[in-house]
Amino acid sequence: MNNLGQFLKEYAHQHNARIAYEIRRNFRTKKVSFANVYSLSLKTATFLRAHSLQKGDTIAIWASNMPEYPILYFACWLLGIIAVPIDIRTTEETRGLFVSTARCKLGFKSKLIAGGFPATVMHSYYLEDLIELVQALPQLDEIPEICPADLAEIAFTSGTTGTPKGVILTHGNFLANVSALCQTFPFKQEYCMLSLLPLSHAFEQVVDFLALFQMGNTVVYLERINQMSITAALHKHMITSVALVPQLLQLLMTGIEREIEKRKQYHLWSGLQWIAGYLPHWMRRRIFYQMRRQLGKHLQFFGCGSAPLNNKLARKWEHTGISIYEGYGATETTAILTINTPAAKRLGSVGKALPGVQILLDPITHEIIAKGPNISSGYFQNMEKTQKVFANGWYRTGDIGRFDTKGYLYITGREALRIVLPGGEKVYPEDIENKLNAHPLVREACVVGVEEEIGEKVHAAVITKYPKKLDEIIHQVNRQLSSHEQILAWSVWEHDDFPRTPILKIDRARVAAVIGGRTEKIVSGELARSDILHSLIAQVKKISISQIKETNVLTTDLALDSLQRVELLSLIEQDVGVAITETRITEHTTVAQLRELMQNADVVPAALPFHALNYQPLIVNLRAWLQNILVFPLHALFVPLEITGQENLVGLELPAVFYFNHMGVMDAVCAVRALPVAIRQKLVIAATRDLWKEWRQFFVEFWGGGFPFDTRQNIKASLELTGDFLDNGFSILIAPEGGISQDGKLQPFKSGIGFIATHMDVPVVPIKIDPAYREIFPPMDEALLENVPKKRKNIWVKIGKPLTFSRQTPIELATKEIQQAMIAL
């Protein structure tokens, strides 16, 4: 195999109809098979060639993770085009340097990122629109010859000023690293992986992109990454494993321990953690079953890299029965040099070298140096930097390490981070941090050198829940350190976390600047949330952030309608990690008041009241049988139907949304009876939540297959539930008027039907019921009597042609056209 285009063809054909990628968007889960990835990559290559891009040209990719990202990568590699991925948190100045240095002709960015490419990029597109842009194009039929030495990517790793450092990675580098990883780690095809690290970084490209593509695994992407979205995805997608950085591991563990403290079970948790250290793996999973359910019962392991892992944190996870496999590498090594595996693991080490990789330690400095087919040949157009770290195929990592007797590698420090004391001794911060982080009262520590007149002094910034005990903590740790490593100054870090780099390593320069008083304190979480709120409102309303003021009333000054409020609260939940119920937003709520709600919100709204058992295959089949032998014949005794328009359903792509005019009680039965058996066997009815009372809930759920659709208090949850049913292949029956017509005339449709039609990627089909139906079930004050038929009458039902709408169609226009289609029947 010579190139990544051949890699795509080989494994796409091998795994064919299996699902390669999933992402939750607009309340629906989009799935892309391996075969679709291959087809779309060839079409995207046609699109790129139409923009006059040839082998050796470069394109910039500045976006969050999504299925379109790897598809675009593959399209570039098919043509020999060089990808220039850019981290989404890269500043405008740095981004401009990357793009201009690489001379990118074309750019793709995410809609969720503010800003754009410099003028040197001739054309730019939203990455989310890629599939729509290329869907109608032919597949590329003429593929240029690509050899292993051809460049696949320029991976920029730093460079805020001057010439940025771009690591050049070839097709051969990627193929070698992926092949070695797949030989070493026992990936199973049933694994479902959650992608959290940026696809702009080599670690994610090798592990969650290329290695999993080779093995046929499904990768799940998130539009936005926070603790709530991660936890929800672990459950919903039955995630088995996640590759991440230590900071995300800490985030998840902090969330778990916070919940344990709320339940006043922390002593029990601590005791079980201690006991688990003496138990086999299977028993650990048993005793921590309830805790693991919070993260999804299928989760088996985390793969961890890119930054030093706190051993105390790793042991906590191991004790719960969730394994941790730490690895080590750098962009210059195409991500991975060493890895721990189920067959060969030592906690605290970064594992053993991959096949084909040689690792040595400098005999004097103990610097780690590596050689192998995965090693980059240097930096893009920067011979000076290349010669400093690359020589005769060997790469000097800048990391200090040691081997144990079994060949496991341990990282003990980084040369670039060393602290030089007044006496000339060198101190490596990681050594001290490891001992601080092992202390039971320390959550995380950062050690930096603080400049003084005679040299640097070791200073420890510590995050702890016990600030009054910090002096005692430092004294205890100092007893474990050699004389020159002693912590001579320390302080409590007053924030929930340290500032981070784009790949979530601690930004030591910023920490040192705060400690040294050279910069203002890190912005507080509350202020950051305020800035985020303005940004999210601007995104929903498509206006400038400068137009938003704290005193603006959401409903009047900013004119946020009900669906825009749903969208805003969804974005807040995803980006900020808090959930606000829609009922807390009134017609008088201001931006400042919403911000206050954000600061105080910490719980997810209660789920809609329904029993999931009623929608399982056994009950679904039982319901269809009972409807056919009992419900429909009884209904037909009083409501004989004359059905027209069923020919409009021939070739209809399912699932679909069917909508009807609401003429009276049990009129939905007319619509269900009008549909072919193949459709109604997997059909659910969106019913007003008012029916979820007393005896009606069982009747609506079990006999009718209804689910609660709350348009007043919980629109978002209703839309989420609708999307879940569609994802599981259920078609939806809904009455868009929102209530029974009082005079038999069609009432204005609620905009929710337009939202569903434009956001959920399904056809909508009108079903019109004869207004004379009201004579059989006339409105009555008594709820029970209202369900008793008063006469027998022939009723007609007409089925219209399916309607489809693009995501770009305005909701109001879609709603109007959907209602007009009903009127025209």
TrEMBL record:
PROSITE patterns: AMP_BINDING, CARRIER. Belongs to the ATP-dependent AMP-binding enzyme family. Residues 527-602 form the Carrier domain. Keywords: Ligase. The keyword Ligase applies. This is AMP-binding protein. GO terms for molecular function: acyltransferase activity; medium-chain fatty acid-CoA ligase activity. SMART domains: PlsC. It comes from the Bacteria. It comes from Dictyobacter vulcani. GO terms for biological process: fatty acid metabolic process. The keyword Ligase applies.
